[in-house]
Amino acid sequence: MKLLFRNLVLSCILTAWFACALSMAQAPPTPVVTGHLVLNTDAAHAGSSVKAAVVAEVAPGYHINDHVPSLDYLIPTELKLEAAEPLSLGSISYPKGSPQKFSFLDTPISVYQGKLLVGAALKVAAGAKPGEYTLKGTLHYQACNDHACLAPTNLAVAVTVNIVPRSEPVKHVNSDVFSAIKFN
Amino acid sequence: MTKRIQVVSGAVLAVAVAIGFYFFNARWLSPAPRQVKAAVNYPIAPDFSVTDINGARLALADYKGKVVLLDFWATWCGPCRIEIPWFVQLQQKYRDQGFEVVGVAMEDTPEAVNEFYQQFHLNYPVALGDSQVAARYGGIGGLPTSFLIGRDGRVYSEHTGTTSSEVFEGEIQQLLSGKPGVELASFSPVGDPQEIDIGTPEEANPDVPGVDISKLSPAELADFKKQLDQTKCSCGCKFTVLQCRKVDTACSTSRQMAREALKQFQASKGKDVKPAT
Fold first, then answer.
1. How near does any CA of chain B get to the CA of A15, in Å?
2. DSSP label at residue B66
3. What is the pTM of this model?
4. Is the ipTM of this complex over 0.90?
5. Which of B30, B31, B79 sits opposite A149 (nearest CB)?
């Protein structure tokens, strides 16, 4: 009886795991990429430089293409920010993807998987008045797993930039995010 | 012996529990997998009419009587690109037996599709698809998605993601050998009933899709279209009957209204009236 119970428990664990993995593979997680926009300071002064970053997560089992895709037909991952006055947009810094081999290609391609950090440099106009300004944008991506692809789509992101008088101190935040980004 | 019975019993129980886990997880933990709606036996392939990349009209109804592999794909989709050369070969191999591949590229612009078409020597029609065409086939969640349609216009299988060429070829052979309207035991229908009338070849026309206008003269056709364009469709689409016929060829309301209108129109002209189906 002990043997029966042991076999049953072990078989159940293994087969249940396999069954879960199989059924999870049937439907893509929605959405495949989640994330948000953060700043490197809790506020900003007129005339200062601010850094923003999209902190995104690609669902397990999926990948999105490098900003500089390995093949010309692949759709690049691209961050587009709408920096309205008094904010102006500088350069955007993408990480280098990691080369991965997939069953549908003979050679590895550079992709983003798991955590993705995309940085953006911003400038606050010298004459900016104190107040809250919204920085909006989209991370455009096209995701695939090892055997199928999803249509290109966008992750909408937004953050509030709080511009304060020079008399008020500004504190650095999200250092773990910004220290991991190699800005251009 | 007792030990053997215990092992076998354990294995049987484990499989039963695993199947239970699978269905529980698939139905309640994962989003429901997209499936084509099934008829009592197999679902009728939803019709669509588009213009292919060579400028010719491409309507699924025109392929009735043939086995069709309807492939939703995109040039930016790596897993799709691996299947295309297989489809070219299958088209070449089985075309004479009544097999056709129809490609629907889910892209906004034709440039990349045209280039791909030339580069990979596609030997079957390809058109650009849109959300309307995709919606008729359940929304097309992932690419590639391929549907095997039998000679009777019914969908016998659906494959999302790269599928081996052997699987496609095996299914094509079975469908080619099957008699129209006769179920093939090797396929399993799924989903809820949904019948969509794909009409006769005469009804597949760009002027008034779903209505046989072949007996109308050009002048009569113009009058008839004008009449349909002055009648509001009652399906709730806010279009006229003519507009609804063109933008939603699967709409049974506008089809019935147009067919009734044709009957009256022909009667007023003293023409033979073909009963609406």
1. 5
2. S
3. 0.67
4. no
5. B79
